[in-house]
TrEMBL record:
Organism of derivation: Kineobactrum sediminis
Family per similarity comment: Belongs to the DNA polymerase type-Y family.
Record text on cofactor binding: Binds 2 magnesium ions per subunit.
PANTHER family xrefs: DNA POLYMERASE KAPPA, DNA REPAIR POLYMERASE UMUC / TRANSFERASE FAMILY MEMBER
Cited CDD domains: PolY_Pol_IV_kappa
Protein name: DNA polymerase IV
Binding site for Mg(2+): 15, 109
GO biological process: DNA repair; DNA-templated DNA replication; error-prone translesion synthesis; SOS response
Amino acid sequence: MPTPPTPQRKIIHIDMDAFFASVEQRDNPELRGKPVAVGGSEQRGVVAAASYEARVFGVRSAMPSVTAKRRCPQLQFVRPRFEVYREVSRQIRQIFARHSDLIEPLSLDEAYLDVTRDKQGIGSATQVAMLIREEIRAETGLTASAGVSYNKFLAKVASDQNKPDGMFVVRPHEGADFAATLPARRFYGVGPRTAERMAALGIHTGADLREKGLAFLQTHFGKSADYLYGACRGEDDRPVRVDRLRKSIGGERTYTEDLHDDNALVTALEHIIDLVWSRIEKNNASGRTLTLKVKYADFQQITRARSVATGIATRQDFSALAHAILASLLPVPQGVRLLGLSLSSLEQTSRATHPLAVAESSPTQHKFGF
């Protein structure tokens, strides 16, 4: 008896629109339609999230509050309410679970869903994405954008095409051509420095990447070569992983002037703590190892790490440990040009208690529409 053909994969990437800021605007009518920054204050701190009205002025997450206020004088700062964001995230994930058992959360506000065999037997990934967005709006009062495609890379890129409150579909016969049109910086792992290296090599788009052979990419981009070689051709075989766990969460900042004074370093570290803790909260993470990264004025770089027996669960504990590590390095007469923090040895929520911990995909009858 011949083996039945493998069904075409159908992947959805859902990304909530300005999630933290949108929750605050939903719950406080006085903030609606106004530029809002979640986190930080007019004098200090770091923006954890910005409303679309604030983004028009160039305000972005991880931006120092002082810079954000300078760009947008009418910006309103709101204290984050992570317990509320987590509860809304649980509502959204319950909606996801109605449609698929294969769900990979990336953070509180985004996730991949494999709907190759959707639980309601709809058969069309496009229709499933539309229904999910409608249910999110009806049940939370928030909007979400969706990308629909046959792999994770294209679905994630597609979800950003028509933001906010939009959807974009890349069908199997369109993937290679769509990838060719993308700027090089849209490929996973291509940050500003890598983009500069690519530009120096004449690589500006997916089409430019496709012209380069695998050996060339391996020479210039090492471990990323295989991924880049496939992605620029619209290929990505990574599965949607229900039990996905990040290895670390961190952030760093390079200073325009070297920091010499102990008090200045302590204040600078507090800003890094704000930045990294907001990311930890956003990912609902807990970890046991905290690492401080320091680059001195002479470009010498060191790291110092400390581990604890149980996960660091509060900002107070996170801050205390970070300051203790810094204190062990003071004074620093040569000056510091970069500080960074990262949390690793992350602890994974057990399958039994995770809101998305469900059995493998059920054998719903498959329909072949996309």
